[in-house]
Amino acid sequence: MTPPPITVIAHPGAGRGAFERVWPAVAAELEAKGVSADVRLTTRAMEAAELAHEAALAGCPLIVAVGGDGTLHEIVNGLLQGDGAGPPPAAGALPCLGLVPAGRGSDYARGLDVPRDPAMLAARFAAAVAGEPGAVRAVDIGRTTYRATPRIAGRPAPEPPVPVEGVAHEPDVREAGPVQVRYFINGAGIGFSPFVAQRTARFPPRLGAYLYTAAALLTIVDWRERSLSLTWDDGLIEDRAVESIELALGGYEGGGMHVAPDADPTDGLLDAVVIDATSRWEMLTFAWRVRTGDHLRSPRVEVRRATSLTAMVADERGPVYLQADGELLGRDPFTFAILPAALRFVW
Predict the structure, then answer these.
(1) Strands (E) located in the chain
(2) pLDDT band at 142 (very low <50, low <70, confident <90, very high)
(3) 334 pLDDT more than 90
(4) Dihedrals phi, psi of 118, to nearest 5 degrees
(5) How far apart are CA 241 and CA 259, in angstroms?
């Protein structure tokens, strides 16, 4: 029996049970077009990565995530991680990736203007399965390395993925474990944003669009800028006091915050949004201004387009932490790199 051409991967509890609300209508539209799908529901963290890896090995032509940025993050890592050593597979050797937006944030979908209409989504998925020209587009993926650590921004760390062999690192580990690698599809951040992500995850979903703003305001109360040593792809090396650095592929983060309005996931570049050390008052204004992208008007904010960046702590106040696609990961030192056209996305 021929397996279904679409593997659907979803976290049933994401978005307050959004899977049960949004998927049946899309499934009905696909069925009307004679396209079948195999639905796989996750029960634990990183299971979506395992299911995506299995689907790729089985030759599935299209994987559809039903959820938000967290679900996409896991699936991307399942497709690209492999055994943790060596380069990821070429895009043409991997399934295409589709998305039914159903998560709490869904910022990647927002940046690409992915439709929510079931008929439109089903038509796009059917076209991708049929191999119609223009049904999929190549998108860039980010790659980061970091150190595993027992706690991240005050929370127990998630189960780490496979360590990376042969990645150079500093000998001063201070409760840090082996070097790890993760891929991200929407964006990654160091400094301020991992603490905001930590608080956001603990807030009730009923706050909706104001989750990020509320978490940011609380974080600002006890946050202090950090000094980082940065090495950019053009050879510039600088020690810089910053509040936050966001490495963006998509334009939105944190449930609709327009962090990087000009980011383009197809241009082969990371938009590095650097917020230099500033006053508490201006940080408080950023919690609101970032909703519209107005924060970029501040002289304390710089956007650099880069293919790579390395960063590590340059002060004596302990580790700096990392979030990628809203997932808390680990501590410095970090490397970031762009993988141009690494996946094919139904868009």
Answers:
(1) 6-10, 37-41, 62-67, 96-101, 136-147, 151-152, 155-156, 179-184, 187-191, 226-232, 237-248, 270-276, 301-306, 308-313, 321-324, 327-346
(2) very high
(3) yes
(4) -60, -40
(5) 19
> DSSP secondary-structure letter at 88?
P
118 DSSP β-pair partners: none
Taking the CB of residue 288, how many other CB atoms lie within 10 A of it?
14
Task: Compute, in degrees rounded to 10, the torsion defined by CA atoms 263, 199, 78, 122.
Answer: -70
Cβ atoms 213, 291 nearer than 8 A: yes
Residue with tokens 């991680």: 81
Region 295-303 average pLDDT: 97
| Confidence at residue 205, expressed as pLDDT on a 0 to 100 scale | 61
Distance CA 93, CA 25 (A): 30
Give the number of C-alpha atoms closer than 13 A to the C-alpha of residue 262, restricted to the C-beta side: 10
Cα distance between residue 189 and residue 192, in whole Å? 8
pLDDT given at position 172? 41
Greater pLDDT, 168 or 110 = 110
Distance of alpha carbon 159 from alpha carbon 162, whole angstroms: 10
3-state DSSP assignment of residue 2? coil
Residue 259 phi, psi (nearest 5): -65, -45
With a CB cutoff of 8 Å and minimum separation 6, the contacts of 302 are 273, 274, 276
Nearest partner of 28 among 96, 98, 121, judged by Cα: 121
Asked whether 52 and 74 are in contact (CB, 8 A), the reply is yes
In contact, 81 and 161? CB cutoff 8 Å: yes
Tokens of residue 130, six digits: 């049929």
DSSP of 135-190, one letter per residue? SEEEEEEEEEEEE--SEETTEEPPPP-PBPTT----S--SS--SEEEEEESSEEEE
- In DSSP terms, which residues pair with 194 in a beta bridge? none
Cα(50)–Cα(56) distance, integer angstroms:
10
Task: Supply the pTM of this predicted model.
Answer: 0.90
The residue assigned the tokens 């490495």 is 247
Q: Tell me the per-residue pLDDT of 197-240, one tens digit each, with 9 for 90 and over.
A: 877 766 666 665 677 778 888 888 888 999 999 999 999 999 99
Return d(Cα 259, Cα 236) in angstroms, integer: 24
Q: What is the pLDDT of residue 140?
A: 98
